[in-house]
Design goal:
14 strands, alpha/beta, 3-stranded antiparallel beta sheet, 7-stranded mixed beta sheet
Length: about 400
């Protein structure tokens, strides 16, 4: 490979949220927070190095080059044509979601989420005084599907105003098909529910699956949706605080822009702007090799479970680098599993109940790490699982 994803890049002691949150204990192995343990694309590092050497880090003007890079990327890779005046930039997808909810709802309104789902969906809804309305995904045969009958019932409530769509889905690992997205769009349009599409993982899709931007499907989908995108997950740039809100509806855009300003998340930093331009203009080759490496990591994990822990289903991963494992055979709560696993082995995974009650008994793994790190994590988990089987 042209890029060395096997190389260990020490992160402890760098004020990493992932590696430095708990302690300086060298035995803690964190596979939880959704950032990667790989250096980003060289083109991004080069442009940031140049910016650092300039030495002045004042307020940034977002140039036309920024919009052009994002527009070309989505046109070329995803056949989605967007326009510059559809954009609102902000500091991240979570602040974007919060501002959108503030802009398009009143306190007490219902917002539908498809659980188990990204934990910040819950807080973004509640922090704006809205009601969480769950449309639980249907689990079976190591994958998840949408319960469309339940979605129809939930969105028929006139008090429900929005659906937060996670596409690709975290933590279920689904890359929703065009047919599924069409059906979601038809139900929501019929019931006057606007779709807010969090598509932050959109580049992290494995062979045999295709990411379809929700808004690209039809004019109706475009006008009845708001899309949030960022290079942060795909290029490991989360700390640079950059994201885009995209909607063609000027009236909706004006309301969101007002909420962005109320929430005081209207400014971005120069590093995020420079990194986004470099990622979308020069980072595609690195991204494609990253995807190959992530897929190989997933296959390695699946083979390990098949050989050593066949009683624990690994959910099929179509996209993202977040693996969902069904650990209900241990008859322990997810929180207990997470705590005991960390205490006994130092391996830090995410408890499934972070993502709703439907995650009870599951654990989430972040496999965006060098293979030797993943091997270490799997060995620790196997030791832990065997100790549970012995009643220890």
């Amino acid at each position: 490979m042209k890029y060395d994803f096997d190389k260990i890049i020490p992160r402890r002691g760098t004020n990493s949220y992932k590696w430095d949150s708990m302690s300086t204990d060298k035995d803690i192995l964190p596979l939880w927070v959704a950032d990667m343990d790989f250096r980003t694309a060289p083109a991004i590092i080069e442009v940031l190095d140049k910016r650092v050497k300039h030495g002045i880090f004042g307020y940034v003007h977002v140039p036309d080059e920024y919009y052009e890079a994002v527009i070309r990327w989505f046109e070329r890779r995803h056949n989605w044509s967007v326009k510059k005046d559809w954009f609102i930039y902000t500091s991240g997808v979570v602040p974007a979601l919060s501002a959108i909810i503030k802009a398009l709802t009143e306190p007490g309104d219902g917002v539908v989420i498809q659980t188990p789902v990204y934990n910040c969906f819950f807080s973004s809804i509640r922090n704006n005084g809205c009601r969480v309305v769950t449309n639980p995904l249907k689990y079976g045969n190591r994958t998840y599907h949408i319960d469309f009958e339940d979605l129809e019932r939930k969105t028929a409530d006139p008090g429900v105003k929005l659906l937060l769509l996670c596409n690709p889905h975290n933590p279920a690992g689904r890359v929703w098909t065009r047919e599924e997205l069409c059906r979601i769009g038809a139900i929501c349009e019929k019931n006057n529910v606007k779709v807010i599409a969090d598509e932050i993982h959109c580049e992290l899709v494995f062979p045999g699956h295709v990411y379809t931007p929700f808004a690209s499907i039809s004019e109706n989908h475009l006008w009845n949706s708001v899309t949030c995108v960022s290079p942060s997950k795909s290029f490991n740039l989360a700390g640079l605080q950059i994201a885009n809100i995209i909607t063609c509806d000027q009236a909706v855009r004006n309301r969101i822009d007002r909420a962005i300003n109320i929430n005081e998340v209207c400014d971005v930093n120069p590093f995020g702007v420079e990194a986004t331009i470099a990622a979308y203009n020069e980072g595609e080759d690195w991204l494609m090799q990253l995807l190959d490496y992530l897929k190989a990591n997933y296959d390695f994990l699946c083979n390990f479970f098949h050989e050593h822990l066949p009683q624990i289903p690994v959910i099929q991963l179509e996209g993202t680098y977040l693996v969902w494992t069904d650990c209900r055979i241990f008859s322990l709560s997810s929180d207990m599993l997470q705590a005991r696993l960390l205490e006994k082995t130092g391996l830090w995974l995410n408890s499934g109940t972070m993502y709703g009650v439907e995650g009870e008994g599951f654990l989430r793994w972040n496999i965006a790490c060098p293979r030797t790190v993943l091997e270490d994590a799997l060995g620790r988990f196997l030791k832990f699982a065997r100790s549970l089987s012995r009643g220890e």
